[in-house]
## 1
Amino acid sequence: MNRDLIVNLVIFALLVAVALGAHVAGQGFTVTLATKAAILGLAGVGLNLALGYGGLVSFGHAAFFGIGGYVTGIFASHAANGDPILTLPFTLMGSNEMLGIWPMAMLAAALAALLIGALSLRTSGVYFIMVTLAFAQMIYYFAISWPRYGGEDGLSFYVRNSFPGLNTFDPIQYFAICAGLLALALLFTAVVTQSRFGLALQATRQNEQRSTAVGIRATPVRLTAFVLSAMITALAGALYADLNRFVSPSMFSWHMSGEIMVFVILGGVGRLCGPVAGAAVFILLEHLLGPVSDHWQALLGLMLLAIVLFAPGGLIGLTLKALRRTEHG
Amino acid sequence: MADPILSIRGLKKSFGALTATDDVSLDLFPGEIHALIGPNGAGKSTLIKQIVGEIRPNEGTIRFEGQVIDRLDAAARARLGLARSFQVSSVIPDFTVLQNVMLAVAGADGHVFRFHRPALSDRTLTEPARFHIAHAGLSGREGTRASVLSHGERRKLEIAMALALRPRAFLLDEPMAGMGLEGAKQLTAILSDLRSEAPILLVEHDMDAVFALADRISVLVYGRIIATGSVAEIRANPEVRRSYLGEEA
Amino acid sequence: MLLAEQVLNGLQYGMMLFLMAAGLTLVFGVMGLINLAHGSLYMIGAFACATVAAWTGSFWLGLAASLAAAAAAGALVEMAVIRRLYPRDHLDQVLATFALILVFSEGTRWIFGDFPLYLKLPPALSGAVTLPGGLQYPLFRLVIIAVGAAVALGLWLLITRTRLGIRIRAGEADREMIGALGVDIARLYTIVFALGAALAGLAGALVGSIQSVQVGMGEPVLILAFVVIVIGGIGSIKGALVGALLVGMTDTLGKAVIPGLFARFMEASDANTSGSAVASMLIYILMAAVLLVRPQGLFGARA
């Protein structure tokens, strides 16, 4: 087995072990923390496909995270009050079934990503960063000024959506759902990045001119990766909404986009489980430092700064380097 | 004579007041190596970029195997078999030699949107790739990352990638640049061999290589072709001697 | 009459955005750096102005302090962190400057707390004036317009007429070249960064005077400044001015006009909510339109 695979398995196994251990010890809160890490990690896994493998530095993935969340919130609230979501051009009723809501969340995000991606990919480099950030901000302002689903106050729904055969209210069972989807997304990423498409995507990141010279147009490849990436992040948004039974415009905020990016980079760009490690460390820091100081984000900022300036490979890169050193030393 | 594979007529490109190519016409016939020479700044690179579709000419038309390709983008032209190498070696640095050539095979057959099967176990990619790697003289280096190849090996990798495009014509932009004496000799032999695959439009500064390889030579000066002919004709042409070869004589 | 007032509001908003965008675009043009922490410098200017004005009772000293504090913070950050980022890719720049936002925001919250501060305008700048045509308009908003115009003129003179300007233009054209000419690049970069920071700080102080001064005030403005730069073309001061005025006008007029337009074909309450929702998206739609027609921005050089 190669080392990357071992690192990936260890990270995922640790997450599951923490959740199971906490469950056995009767610490429901810790199970919920692990669930949150799995969900945010999933959002990062989505972004990693575009950013890590495709080199598309999207600072607007909160848009897709929020869309996933709002689709869930809207379906759940309509299921509660019985009003249809749409009557034209077709009647669409609310739903409490996760299995029905998830595809809708991913579809909505895919459409948004198709539009945003097609416009943003007309630019590159620093423009792309600014444009994706701006479009996410547009949706943020729209969510604030559209009063139907709560506007600035957000939207609560009191019952967590259901999954056949499971009690979604039981923390460990909800964790199982989230970890299962995370595993699926990781598997999907692993397969896609090894495929012909993955070959083309990584080639356009490293050398666009060369890719064109062998007959591969970069834009359709990138747009596809952007849309797939948005769908995964939207799925995370849907799970996050169900975790809190609440959605608010802050899911769309630039701060959220920044945090998703931090998960990816904290762990290690372009590494399969990097975002999971990044999200877990983020949650851990929030949990450990939060009670010590109200200003833990300042410490996070300093730590992040240190990683960018001195450890470009992220936490996994650091770990691998340390492993190699002990082997040779 | 047979119909030309590549036929350029009246190509004109200006950037503001600067005319980079001025009414350039040339043909590339099956089986030939047609060298394009000229001093620095004569417009050779701009001409190549117009042929591959990287920049659009202001006027003129390009036919490839009889088909007008003016409206096709660079990737579409590559898929037709217009294979190109770069002045500065251009490969995918973090890919292995095998992956680089597999990428070219995938680009050429046009099936990039396959998400499922691992590329490395797709024999429709690996088998042609290994074949072209062997053809370019890189056997045994399949698993090596492109970024650690020597300069000469990277040139060979580019040729393997060009071969993978099932080329109908090669556009080679200064392949000898930066090669040592021994490397240049080796590469000359490879290029001579390549001619049987497809004709070559060869932009080159190394006059030894040009005179050894070329069937015909066109001389580009200030964006215009001042002469086209056999090696002997070009050597004897007084205008060429004055404006170009004169520097070396 | 109402329209004239909205046009002036749009002009004032645009000028404020220009102060933000000018520094950002200058820093990108000369150093190739994308700086997310530009919004923090805006916030620092506002807090410095509010604090010093409260201590001394003088708004003018506060204004001077906003320039000085933002420039000093800018120079300090440039020397400590930013200069290590010039050779890095945009991803590292985004991440490091995002980290700086966290540090600055939490640091400010630590010192000043969560409650917004309010600035009191001196009598000489408050009140309204009567414009030709009889329109009553707040004097201070006219002052912001004038400051923006003066800064635009000043930047133009600086870049076309002074030694520093020549070096800035040389730096945009060719980085190695100015090194070869014996210009101290490190110092030039620090000066340019501090200049951009000072403009952001000034904008923060001016806006803080008509709204409020609080943590997190900088980032929404920063994102609008990005929209301005995308529309105007990166690295172009002229583009920043035109883009800023376009965005300021579009946003202000859109919010004034669209709900009324919607009221013609739907119920008043619906028109108001959906109208304001659409109006809030208008500038981004403008940006999308520019991307469709001219992806490099109105005055951008590169295709």
## 2
Amino acid sequence: MAIPLLVVLLSLAKGTGETWAHLTRYFLLRYLGNSLVLVGGVGILSTILGVSAAWAVSRYAFPGRELVVKLLYLPLAIPTYIMAYAYVGFLGNGGTLVRIEEMIGLSPSGIDFMNLGGLIWVLALSLYPYVYASCRVAFSGLPASLRSASALLGASGLRYFFTVALPLATPAIVGGVFLVTMEVLNDYGAAKYYGINTFTTGIFRTWTALEDLRSATYLAALLILFVLVAVYLSRLARGRRSFVTQSVSGSECSARIVARGWRQWLVVGAVGTPLFFGLALPLGQLLWWVSGEPAWGISFSLAWVGLQSLLVAIAAAVACLVLALALVFLSRWNQLDVLRPISKLSVIGYAVPGAIIGIGTIGSSQLIVDFFADNYGWRIGYLFYGSSLVLLYAYAFRFLAVAYHPLEAHCLKLGKPLAEAAYLLGDGKLRALRNIELPLLVPAMVSALFLVFVDTLKELPLTLILKPYDLNTLSIAAYTYAEDEQLAKAAPPALLLILLVAIVLWSISFGKEAKR
Amino acid sequence: MKLFILFTFTAVLLSCGNPSSESTTEGAGAEEKTVTLYTHRHYDVDKEIYAAFEKETGIEVNVVKAGADELIQKMEIEGDQSPADLLLTVDAGRLVRAHEKGLLQPITSDVVSGSIPAYLRAEDDSWVGLTKRARVIVYHPDRVDTSKLSTYEALVDPEWKGRILIRSSGNIYNQSLLASIVAHAGEDAAKTWAEGMVTNFARRPKGNDRDQVKAILAGEGDLAVINTYYLGLLRNATDEQSAKAGNAVKIFFPNQDGRGTHVNISGIGLAKYAPHAEAATRLIEYLASKPVQERFASINYEYPANPEAKISEELESWGSFKEDKLPLTKLGEMNRAAVMTFDVAGWE
């Protein structure tokens, strides 16, 4: 799995390129600073949004709750660059806001959104569902006994949240924020449009404008190092504490309560903020663009593109899930200690800019192609350039972390006792896995599948480089138009993408939620 | 779960395409029925033109769309097994780079060299320009005195302090413009110019070319440096706010008394290891022909590279202008120096 990464790392041996001195002198520190502010800002904002929304829907009952639970996932379906364009289209010069102001007779003035703050806002609103998704799983698994015990001990609802629920959900929050951070580090389109130079745009500048792939690879390796440190820190934060909760017989989950008074407003704010700014506003802008385009409509070709995207995304999601499960359990059983560093290595694919992985993947598949050409005289290039095999492999490498983290977090919460009990009763490891652990992991598995599915649907750089020519995806269709400043044409594929995610979201059951 | 596995297989199979026909038709002498095009262009009109070509010649055009840099990288790694026949980019610099990396071969066609002027082609004909776009000044007529406008160089005068709008230095069109200044006047002069521009910026560079025009209408600045075809697209946009912004500004072609206005191209190169070089050459000839040039260029408000092709009405209304006839190869050669100059000058 880690071969593309190794190809990248091996190229480090050749040393830095000739522009290294130039880039360390003129922009590296500035770009790094921007990236750190961005990661910090988006991390904090998405945690606040994700945790409060997850808590509000897990703890409180309110009308339309079932719908809200699912709607809260949807901003994830809007690619960040589309969200970035939509915000400028709404608030910027000549945007929808200006139009509205003109209509109601105010002096028209747009809001400048193309700055670091704006970028943080846009990224946090399209990425908070990662935190939300993992927290939902964590909060819905909290046994009622904990709540009752806290109440008996005199803890207020607020205190229960901060001292009991939140600490127990820490692995989930850390896992979610980790994914958000990786996405932020990978963002290229939104940052470029807003004119914010980040570490990732710096890698591209070095590679494409300064024509120095070697220095670019070096920068990518630095990024990998940064991520390794982050992974290490998140493990350090978890320490040796245990997050296992044991449910006693009876009702596993406490009943949801109806919020009153000021709490009611808090709940409305917690779910309303992300829904309005992350979903309603950008969606509204997209619909506005579509309505301005005369020849719009879900044409047959668009539907075909949608179907292709769907199939590829499902295939990638399944591949990632299977691999992630294998990694989690093989390293848990501890028989294969070798796997531990590998499991860490391969989840880093998520942090490396997609284009770099793309190059690594072409490089490694080229090794195979060359091998057959040299030894047997077979020209099997078409197998690699004409099919989706390489693309699927690259997706699996890239998104393994997305599947791995929720599963790992959930496994930590389940702990080993159940499996150990099964072993004591004479079950083998595989049997225990099949009969006991996997069924318990279903919510986390569904959430992992869903996240990889959505990520693959949105994925750009890898798909662009590695796709065979007869494959076209919605994200590519949306991006190619948006890049050329034809937003009205970018809107229909973007909307179809959101619709697809919505359909999948409604057709899958989020494990426990549905059973109850 | 079984359903998922089924889906997985279907997905892989579906997207496998038709590899056998691909590999077996490569025999010498066999009529070439496909051509694979790596392209950075993604306009709807391109698709229609390829379909028309297919109808006319029976040659199927396989299109791989991605950024030019990725495509060049891909061709480089794929080496002699690369399926690419042609590389189509939206600037000369990338074609020059592909040529320097030894990824292109000369196009041997009298039709092509007869229809595209020499300054728009590589010295060895390994690539040719298909459409031209000029980088011009657009300004608000009420706030800018036209008599003060003359050259790109004059934009650094104190007169324009806090009034100039332009996008970031990461953009290839800005890089090419600065590369042309490096080629004409040297790196020191280019650095002085870039620094002077930074001093005169109305705001931090951000957004795309259309955003600069919208910012003029909103009063954030008085003039902008943009590509011609974006103005054409804005003025003819269905969205009335965009059209309003496009019509609020006037166009000025700089450096008319000197070297001429900077132009860049969208161009095509023939891949070194093209499996279907013959069919690929036919496609280039087709794209360079007068009727196709008129369609290819006009829909996107570009200037055709073939001088016989008529320009669209919109462009006609902007008047004719003198082009900078600097060999485009220079833009590619100077691109890196230009980017480094941007960094030194602090042009974000």
